[in-house]
């Protein structure tokens, strides 16, 4: 068991979480917040040098092993901290966003009575996520996977008195478990086929026998395809991909810093990370990769369409996240793992920025989240507005080919180009979905910006702000003409926005050469099966994203600045209702799965257990009361016999033992 | 020091120390005149001390036991008539179950502090029950095993029937009827085995069977007779319906013992008798057991989802979790069997703790109806945190002891039949649904029932009950190897014994 700084990166947040969680009664909120924030700060300070070492230095990949987790005849897992380029990228993403969210939350949660618990959960989440990204085998990966799931469950349901928050928390956990069903089976299949669950051993074995078949009864299929599809089912749950995406929008019930950290920047990207980590398997599995490509592409487009029609500011960003994760997946599906990871990296900055910016708006607007009741927020919250603007530019991937642009420009365009260049099944479909989604992304992003910040304030007719009892706050926020009754957020909330904004602007052009450009081979050090070659694209492919982005912007200007009546008219149409209701996924799932499980449960219980089993069994035996009485008498007599039998045997045993003891004593 | 103590009849001491305590209480009672509250307190304390002492001595046995050696250790042998005898001995499988029993019983006694009715009788029964439970795992003679195995019914039957809830007589009757049915068949089979093999020693019977002493035809019948008994004890679907009723009516500590230890006798029986002694029949019936196990997992999980009574919900979840155990055992793989043993221990800890959690609120509000509660986190934050941990354990979260057993049994099953593993894997979805829904209904939300406004958080005694279970859940969650390494040799032996089955 070796102790080293790398181990501290992972363990520090756990220790802080335990400390703050267990002793919250004694240490008070301030200490709890301080300790947890400092611990993540420490992890942050320790992980950037590692990342920089991979970028510019001569950091080497290595594994620090702690102690055995499980070891049963080859099914063995060791608690480890694996450091390579892939985990180094994740370390800085997780720790940076987590640290900033910790700081931000000091301001955002200032009035919450359960701050210590909140910070404890945040740090516990950070620990689980770090354990996930530094895993050296599939089982520790699964541990982290489930750990972040629990943290997500706890934080979505943080306001536990709210029924909707609790339901969303359970929905998130159970939907993720559907994915885990696939993941767990994938682990079993990996062990069955390759006799190990250690990453390197598994990848070596898979490369050694790429044609291995897995046979179940009369059905047989290429093992690596089956494994890759099963693992991807897990990734679909965690990363909210089409079919298993339903939990993510509801997860917005949690406090906004949570949405930024867990449901935008880190946890939901775990699925992408996992596919990249297992890139050696997907590389051998064209069918599974095609599944990843197509589902990713569908998600990118689907989520963007739903994002068009949402009114809750956080839900728009949530669907945007879902859509951007789709981009990452289809990048991985066409084999551009490096582009997927690069988008994961840049997305963490600008999506966290957008969420924390939205949180700032919500905070300033006294917990109003509905954009229909916003407008004119720019004037009272100019800094937040500027930061959100940067985030929007980064999200839509604004940039000029051959010149440069925001972070999202480098990563998203790389994905779209990779899809275009690929000859894999589904790649062209993904390319067009990607371009289409870019159009929609631009539209809904500007829609959000305009509805929130521009125009005149539209008060909520049903609002009862006095319920909050913060009449003083209202007093301070006397609205100027047409401006919203909001106040700019405190510096402790704005400072993290600045850092993230810097990332949203600069992360693209600084790191592009390393993730994707000329230094990529040196940076990645072959941790994923990617060939970093240079492609020549037709000019229109390079310009297409910019063209659709500008088009989306213009539509948004028309609909939400010039002709605000138009969307209202459209909102009465069936297409809008279809989008607003998220393609009716919730209703369909509720009918099939929730109601189905209830009905089946009732059937098994009331008909199966009670009528059939008990009816034919014990109750049937005791059908009439007379019969019961007779049985009871019989039972009693039987009981006496039983008892005397025991007594007899026990007496003999005791006697025998007394003799034995006597003999023993004599010796 | 410990090496010398290994020569003592440690297992006999551990087994009969509780019975001796019971005798002491009976003697004291015969001298007791009239009602005296101080007397009840004394009885409780004495019982607690006896069970703690038993645990302490079992720790000595644990230390004296060398898990790296195959076969039985701490063996004691007193010959008696017809080749039968008083023989005790344990392998690492039995040793862990003995430890589980001695570890949990003092916690049960603490949980029984609230019992006011006929305290001394209750404690006497509980101590006798402990003797009988430990005896089951230590017995090396099949007749002795049978006596312990069946006699355990009696104190449990009385505990439910006297200290139980409203429908206690129905529940006790059902419990007895089911288990008796199985045990009669097992007795017949035992007599048959002794007459064929000419010995009643378990090691000798195993060796005899391993040399092909029981023909395949006979094995089938013997297997079925044993199965009838063990399947009821597990309980396996479809002979599981006694369990929810028994749990609901049993006092808290009775539920804990029932779930944590008595259910494990079925799994122990399969591992000790069915697989090693009837390997051909076990192989023959494997598909049958797989189907029953998978049906148990899916069926019981869905039924649990619909329960309105906290204890019934947890009882059904026990049925589902035991499905993993039977599935793991009959895979005959090292992962499956190791996982099954682990799952038995883990389920003992977690389900025991969950029944204690129910007991905490039941003692305050006197109802187990889920709808009665809601928003308990406001009044009982510490309780809510503890309940959450064990709920997560029940869900099989990695990092709690609930995880390794489930995953290992499924890994084992996958190697034999991937469809079985896939069907069992559905359990991880369902368990999340029912366990978290229960937790939401009890702990989250706002307090709507005014009667809950007087609820108090857990007190010192309840803290003491929970702390050992919390520690065990987390240690075995993060370092399951501690336990897996301990049982490795026993599990390997069973795998080899089962592996001798004709293909």
Care to give the gist of this entry?
The complex is a heterodimer of chains A (667) and B (503). Chain A is mainly alpha-helical. Chain A has helices spanning 5-22, 24-55, 85-108, 115-133, 138-156, 163-194, 199-208, 223-238, 247-250, 256-265, 270-277, 279-283, 286-308, 313-333, 337-364, 382-395, 407-421, 427-453, 471-476, 491-515, 520-524, 539-562, 565-570, 574-580, 585-616, 618-621, 625-666; strands at 62-72, 75-83, 213-216, 219-222, 399-400, 404-405.
The count of DSSP E runs of length 2 or more, i.e. the number of strands of chain A, is 6
How big is the Rg of chain A?
29 Å
- Rg of chain B, Å, rounded: 22 Å
In this structure, how is the largest beta sheet of chain A organized?
A: 2 strands, antiparallel
Percentage beta strand of chain A:
under 5%
Q: How would you classify the quaternary structure?
A: heterodimer
User: Which bin fits the share of residues in helices of chain B?
Assistant: over 70%
Largest interface: chains, residues each: A-B, 73 and 77 residues
| Overall mean confidence score, pLDDT of chain A | 85
Nearest-integer average pLDDT of chain B: 88
Number of helices of chain B: 21
Structural class of chain A: mainly alpha
Q: What's the shape of chain A?
A: globular
The major beta sheet of chain B can be summarized as: 2 strands, antiparallel
* Distance between the ends of chain B: 48 Å
Order of helices and strands of chain B: HHHEEHHHHHHHHHHHHHHHHHH
Q: Any low-confidence stretches of chain B, pLDDT <50, length ≥5? A: none
Question: Strand sequence of the main sheet of chain B, in spatial order?
Answer: 1-2
Shape of chain B: globular
Describe this protein's structure.
The complex is a heterodimer of chains A (667) and B (503). Chain A is mainly alpha-helical and 667 residues long. Chain A contains 27 helices and 6 strands. Helices cover 71% and strands 5% of the residues of chain A. In chain A, a hairpin with a 2-residue loop joins β3 (213-216) and β4. Chain A is globular. Chain B has 503 residues and is an all-alpha fold. In chain B, β1 (73-79) and β2 (85-90) form a beta hairpin. The relative contact order of chain B is 0.10. Chain B is globular, with a radius of gyration of 22 Å.
């Amino acid at each position: 068991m070796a102790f080293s700084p790398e181990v501290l990166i992972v363990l520090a947040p756990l220790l802080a979480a335990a400390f703050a969680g267990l002793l919250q009664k004694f240490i008070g909120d301030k200490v709890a917040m301080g300790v947890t924030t400092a611990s993540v700060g420490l992890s942050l300070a320790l992980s950037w040098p590692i990342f920089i070492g991979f970028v510019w230095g001569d950091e080497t990949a290595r594994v620090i092993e702690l102690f055995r987790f499980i070891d049963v005849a080859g099914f063995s897992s060791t608690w480890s901290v694996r450091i390579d380029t892939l985990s180094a990228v994740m370390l800085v993403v997780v720790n940076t966003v987590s640290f900033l969210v910790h700081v931000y939350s000091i301001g955002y949660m200032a009035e919450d009575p359960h701050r210590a618990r909140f910070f404890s959960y945040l740090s516990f989440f950070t620990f689980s996520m770090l354990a996930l990204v530094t895993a050296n085998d599939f089982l520790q990966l699964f541990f982290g996977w489930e750990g972040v799931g629990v943290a997500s469950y706890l934080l979505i349901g943080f306001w536990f008195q709210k029924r909707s928050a609790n339901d969303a928390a359970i929905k998130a956990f159970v939907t993720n478990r559907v994915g885990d069903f696939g993941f767990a089976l994938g682990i079993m299949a990996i062990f069955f086929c390759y006799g190990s669950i250690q990453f390197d051993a598994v990848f070596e074995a898979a490369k050694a026998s790429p044609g291995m078949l897995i046979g179940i009864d009369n059905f047989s299929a290429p093992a690596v395809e089956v494994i890759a599809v099963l693992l991807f089912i897990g990734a679909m749950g965690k990363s909210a991909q089409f079919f298993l995406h339903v939990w993510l929008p509801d997860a917005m019930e949690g406090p906004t810093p949570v949405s930024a950290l867990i449901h935008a920047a880190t946890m939901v990207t775990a699925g992408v990370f996992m596919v990249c980590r297992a890139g050696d398997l997907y590389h051998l599995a064209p069918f599974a990769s095609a599944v990843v490509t197509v589902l990713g592409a569908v998600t990118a487009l689907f989520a963007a369409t739903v994002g068009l029609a949402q009114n809750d500011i956080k839900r728009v960003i949530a669907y945007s996240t879902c859509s951007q994760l789709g981009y990452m997946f289809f990048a991985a599906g066409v084999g551009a793992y490096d582009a997927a990871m690069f988008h994961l990296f840049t997305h963490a900055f600008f999506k966290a920025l957008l969420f924390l910016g939205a949180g700032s708006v919500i905070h300033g607007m006294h917990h109003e989240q509905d954009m229909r009741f916003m407008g004119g927020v720019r004037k009272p919250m100019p800094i937040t507005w500027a930061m959100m603007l940067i985030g929007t530019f980064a999200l839509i991937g604004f940039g000029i080919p051959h010149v440069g642009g925001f972070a999202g420009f480098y990563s998203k365009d790389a994905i779209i180009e990779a899809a275009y260049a690929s000859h894999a099944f589904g790649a062209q479909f993904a390319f067009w979905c990607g371009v289409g989604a870019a159009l929609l992304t631009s539209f809904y992003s500007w829609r959000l910006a305009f509805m929130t910040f521009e125009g005149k304030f539209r008060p909520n007719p049903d609002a009862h702000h006095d319920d909050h009892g913060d009449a003083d706050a209202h007093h301070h926020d006397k609205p100027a003409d047409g401006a919203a009754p909001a106040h700019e957020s405190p510096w402790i909330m704005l400072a993290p926005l600045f850092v993230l904004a810097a990332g949203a602007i600069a992360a693209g052009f600084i790191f592009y050469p390393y993730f994707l450009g000329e230094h990529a081979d040196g940076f990645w050090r072959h941790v994923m099966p990617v060939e970093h070659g240079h492609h020549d694209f037709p000019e229109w492919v390079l310009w297409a994203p910019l063209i659709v982005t500008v088009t989306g912007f213009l539509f948004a200007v028309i609909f939400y600045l010039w002709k605000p009546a138009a969307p209202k008219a459209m909102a009465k149409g069936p297409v809008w209702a279809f989008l607003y209701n998220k393609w009716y996924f919730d209703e369909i799932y509720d009918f099939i799965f929730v109601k189905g499980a209830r009905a089946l449960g009732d059937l098994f219980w009331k008909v199966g257990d009670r009528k059939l089993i008990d009816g034919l069994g014990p109750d049937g035996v005791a059908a009439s009361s007379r019969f019961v009485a007779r049985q009871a008498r019989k039972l009693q007599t039987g009981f006496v016999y039983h008892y005397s039998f025991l007594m007899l045997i026990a007496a003999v045993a005791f006697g025998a033992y007394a003799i034995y003891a006597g003999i023993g004593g004599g010796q | 020091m410990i090496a010398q103590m290994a020569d003592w009849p440690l297992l006999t001491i551990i087994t009969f120390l509780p019975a001796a305590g019971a005798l002491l209480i009976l003697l004291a009672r015969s001298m007791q005149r009239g009602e005296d509250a101080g007397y009840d307190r004394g009885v409780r304390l004495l019982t607690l001390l006896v069970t703690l002492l038993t645990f302490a001595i079992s720790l000595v046995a644990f230390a004296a036991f060398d898990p790296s050696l195959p076969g039985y250790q701490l063996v004691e042998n007193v010959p008696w008539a017809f080749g039968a005898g008083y023989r005790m001995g344990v392998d690492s499988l039995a040793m862990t179950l003995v430890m589980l029993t001695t570890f949990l019983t003092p916690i049960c006694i603490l949980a029984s502090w609230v019992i006011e009715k006929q305290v001394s009788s209750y404690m006497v029964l509980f101590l006798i029950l402990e003797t009988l439970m430990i005896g089951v795992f230590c017995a090396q003679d099949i007749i002795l095993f049978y006596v312990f195995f069946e006699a355990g019914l009696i104190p449990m039957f009385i505990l439910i029937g006297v200290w139980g809830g409203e429908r206690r007589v129905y529940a006790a009757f059902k419990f007895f009827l089911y288990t008796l049915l199985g045990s009669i068949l097992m007795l017949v089979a035992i007599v048959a085995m002794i007459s064929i093999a000419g010995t009643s020693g378990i090691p000798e019977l195993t060796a005899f069977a391993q040399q092909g002493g029981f023909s395949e035809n006979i094995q089938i019948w013997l297997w079925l007779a044993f199965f009838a008994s063990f399947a009821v004890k597990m309980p396996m679907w479809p002979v599981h319906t006694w369990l929810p009723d028994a749990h609901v009516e049993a006092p808290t500590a009775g539920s804990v013992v029932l779930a944590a230890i008595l259910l494990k006798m079925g799994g122990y029986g399969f591992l000790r008798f069915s697989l090693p002694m009837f390997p051909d029949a076990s192989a023959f019936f494997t598909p049958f057991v797989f189907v029953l196990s998978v049906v148990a997992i899916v069926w019981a999980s869905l039924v649990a989802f619909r329960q309105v009574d906290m204890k019934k919900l947890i009882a059904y979840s026990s049925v589902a979790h035991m499905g993993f155990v039977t599935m793991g055992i009959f895979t005959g793989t090292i992962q499956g069997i190791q996982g099954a043993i682990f799952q038995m221990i883990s389920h003992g800890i977690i389900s025991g703790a969950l029944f204690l959690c129910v007991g905490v609120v039941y003692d305050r509000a006197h109802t187990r109806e889920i709808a009665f509660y809601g928003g308990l986190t406001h009044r009982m934050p510490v309780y809510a945190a503890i309940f959450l941990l064990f709920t997560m354990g029940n869900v099989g979260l990695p990092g709690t002891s609930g995880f390794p057993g489930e995953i290992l049994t499924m890994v084992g099953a996958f190697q034999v039949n991937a469809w079985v593993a896939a069907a069992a894997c559905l359990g991880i979805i369902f368990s999340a649904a029912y366990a978290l829904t229960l937790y939401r209904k009890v702990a989250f939300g706002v307090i709507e029932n005014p009667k809950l406004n007087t609820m108090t958080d857990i007190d010192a005694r309840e803290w003491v009950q929970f702390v050992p279970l919390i520690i065990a859940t987390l240690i075995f969650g993060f370092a399951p190897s501690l336990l897996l390494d301990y049982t490795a040799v026993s599990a390997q032996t069973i795998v080899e014994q089962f592996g001798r089955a004709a293909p």
